[in-house]
Each structure stands twice: as C-alpha cells, then as structure tokens.
Amino acid sequence: KAGVTQTPRYLIKTRGQQVTLSCSPISGHRSVSWYQQTPGQGLQFLFEYFSETQRNKGNFPGRFSGRQFSNSRSEMNVSTLELGDSALYLCASSFGEGEAFFGQGTRLTVV
Amino acid sequence: GENVEQHPSTLSVQEGDSAVIKCTYSDSASNYFPWYKQELGKRPQLIIDIRSNVGEKKDQRIAVTLNKTAKHFSLHITETQPEDSAVYFCAASKFGNEKLTFGTGTRLTIIP
C-alpha cells in the first residue's frame, strides 16, 4: 500500500513569488491535513480538508490556502512568499478519525 | 485553543535503560493522543496512540499512559536501543477533528 506522497521534495523560491505544493494521500483516506515545521515553531497546523471541504484551519495568514480534489489529493498554495515561510511543509492523511500518517514533506526555501 | 507542553526537551539514556517523555494538555475535551518519532531528515512516524477511554496501551517496548484527571500522558520506552535515537513528538486532538496540536519535541539520544 503506497504511503503519503508529497511533491516536490525541494523548492527554492524568491520573495514575492507564489508556490503550490501537492499531496497524494493513502488510498481510501479522505482527510488531508497540512503542517508547517520549523526549528523555532515546531509543528504547526495549517488546515485540514475532508471530502473536498476545509474542515479546520490554523492561525496562518490568508496567503496560505489549500484545496482538495475529488480523488482526495490536496494542494497547498502560498502567495507572496516571505523569508519566514521557509520551512518543511508536511501533509498527513487519515480516514478522518485519528491515525494520521505523514508524507516526507516539501522543503521550501525562500531567498 | 489546545496547548500541549512536552518535557524534557532533550534526554540521553544508556542503551538498555528506559526513557520516559511527558506531556500535558490543556483542553479537557481532547480525547486522542498520538506519539510520533522523527529521525533526522525523515517524516514523523506514528509509533503509538491512545484514546481517552483507555489508561494505558503497550506495543512491544513502547507504552503510553494517560491520566485524564491530571491531563497528562507519557511515553515509556524500555530496553532502549541505538535506533530509538530520534525526536519524539506528542500531540493531542479531539477524535474526529484532525487538527493535531503538537508538543515541542524531545530529542532522545541513546548512548551505546
């Protein structure tokens, strides 16, 4: 059974640009959550999608957005990138009731 | 919102000894508590979880205990091995609400 797949693995972007990250969940999982991991702030929840609907949202500015498609794949978009957005972005998938499994993450560097 | 505190931030133990990591949570409505292990450069890996209707759960050398009254839960690793060296994160959520609030992590080092 394939795990959670995130693409791309690494990205380098310039301040002011936008970026789109992709996450393919484990087959059958309908929930996809996104987290930002930084050395200073740890693991912080961005948002969660379940059956194409945003079910939960963390305390991030509106520059961070996401969506989920009918096949449960999810994308996360960050607009007007800032240096502080440099982080490892992780997605996690689950059936929607606990037991979340993480992808390997996308390492975003903003220069 | 939920707040999870985790201690200690670093822990070194001799190989073969036990390690204990403790977390406290603030929201009494939280009822799902997973633990993740993250090795350097790798994804967080779910190693064990516990739901609030259970006080203890074991899986081979690892166990988790939950005290709902005190709002704290702990990870116990017995007979530690070098491959247990990693950063461990506790988390809390409400079952059916996939927002995990994480602790700040514990860097566990096993000394051969």
Write the layout of secondary structure elements.
The complex is a heterodimer of chains A (111) and B (112).
Chain A: E1 5-7, E2 10-13, E3 19-24, E4 31-38, E5 42-50, E6 53-57, E7 64-68, E8 74-78, E9 87-94, E10 101-102, E11 106-110
Parallel strand pairs in A: 2-11
Antiparallel strand pairs in A: 1-3, 3-8, 4-5, 4-9, 5-6, 7-8, 9-10, 9-11
Chain B: E1 4-7, E2 10-14, E3 19-25, E4 32-38, E5 45-51, E6 56-59, E7 62-67, E8 72-77, E9 86-92, E10 101-102, E11 106-111
Parallel strand pairs in B: 2-11
Antiparallel strand pairs in B: 1-3, 3-8, 4-5, 4-9, 6-7, 7-8, 9-10, 9-11
Q: What this model shows, in words?
A:
Chain A is mainly beta and 111 residues long. Chain A is built from no helices and 11 strands. Helices cover 0% and strands 54% of the residues of chain A. In chain A, β4 (31-38) and β5 form a beta hairpin. The N and C termini of chain A lie far apart (37 Å). Chain B is 0% helix and 54% strand. Chain B has no helices and 11 strands. In chain B, strands 2, 4, 5, 9, 10 and 11 form a 6-stranded mixed β-sheet that branches. Chain B starts with a strand and ends with a strand. Chains A and B meet through β4, β5, β9 and β10 of A and β4, β5 and β10 of B.
Fraction of helical residues of chain A: under 10%
Instruction: Estimate the helix proportion of chain B, in percent.
Output: under 10%
Number of helices of chain B: 0
User: In terms of per-residue confidence, which ranges of chain B show pLDDT below 50 for 5 or more consecutive residues?
Assistant: none
- Strand fraction band of chain B? over 45%
Question: H/E order of the elements of chain A?
Answer: EEEEEEEEEEE
Number of beta strands of chain B: 11
| Mean pLDDT across every amino acid position of chain B | 95
Radius of gyration of chain B: 13 Å
How far apart are the first and last residues' alpha carbons of chain A, in Å? 37 Å
Total of DSSP H or I helical runs spanning 4+ residues of chain A: 0
